[in-house]
Amino acid sequence: MKKIYFLFTAILVIGISSCKKNDGITDPPTPVEPPKPYVADNSFKVVAYFPSYRDPNGVADAKFKMITHLFYAFLNPNTDGSLANLEQPSRFAAVMQKARANGVKTGISVSGTRSIFVEMAASASARKLFIKNVLGFARTNNLDGVDMDWEYPSTADGSADNYVLLMKELSDSLHKYNKFLSAAITPGVYAGSIRDGLKSEVFPSVDFFNIMVYDGIGWDKDEPIQHASYNMAVASLNYWIGTRGMPKQKAVLGIPAYGKNAANASKAYRDFVAANADVNLDYATIDGVQYYFNGILTTKKKAKLAKETANGIMFWEFYHDDNGSKSIIRAANDELGRNYN
């Protein structure tokens, strides 16, 4: 009887073991963490552009602490979606290194002739190649984002709709790798096909818009030679945010770091400082020619306007500003209460 019981028990154990091996149930695989969804940075921005033709040594290292984003200008596309070689790659590397060392977010600004953008954006295959190349450039160079400086899409040539397509597709690709997309745009104070060329449908795709509120000689009848008056800044933000419905957190107010004369010739703000001009004012005479610019007080006033009604300020361009105590970027930071030490 004991033998029969032992045999029955052995058979039962073998059967159970066999069922465990063949019941089709396996341990679940180690879960793979899903990619984190893109989250836009809605903090207040202080943006500056650095053109390839400037010497990085011309900007004091301490100035980098006064900005949040730096764009190297420019990377140029071709009509087929390929990219031209970057100008001054060694300067690009030096500027990006300085920016990162100071906690600044880095990006490349893509620009070129309007005709190239119009043709490229009209072709689905060219758009696809362009986006692949721009994304590849941003990833290879460990950039935080990309700025599109297409001046300008227009309703007159049919490029407005293609601009929406291009920015949507580019945004989707960049966001997959947690990189932002910004755009440099018209101030919007002049009615017409250029202003209408930036359709509201593009607002959701772009993380922030660098509004170029300058080069407007004659717009302000109270200051006809001032190319970037305070009134122009107010009108521009009122249009984009109030009239067109651009989200406040995406609007960045552009401030020029240069002045212009009645003949539309430019001079860097640092030149006015070097000439011992009173930069609390918005005008100065150099070699018998009067220039109008944004001095310290107007820059502070615009910074306050941006803080109250928008979500950032932008300077064209970084090198133009003075490196010392009369810097307008420093003045803007002081008005904003930002620590740059």
TrEMBL record:
Its EC number is 3.2.1.14. It holds the Pfam family Glyco_hydro_18. It comes from the Bacteria. Residues 44-339 form the GH18 domain. GO terms for biological process: carbohydrate metabolic process; chitin catabolic process. Keywords: Glycosidase, Hydrolase. SUPFAM superfamilies: (Trans)glycosidases. The keyword Membrane does not apply. GO terms for cellular component: extracellular region. The keyword Hydrolase applies. Gene3D superfamilies: (Trans)glycosidases - domain 2, Glycosidases. This is chitinase. Belongs to the glycosyl hydrolase 18 family. SMART domains: Glyco_18. It catalyses: Random endo-hydrolysis of N-acetyl-beta-D-glucosaminide (1->4)-beta-linkages in chitin and chitodextrins. GO terms for molecular function: chitin binding; endochitinase activity.
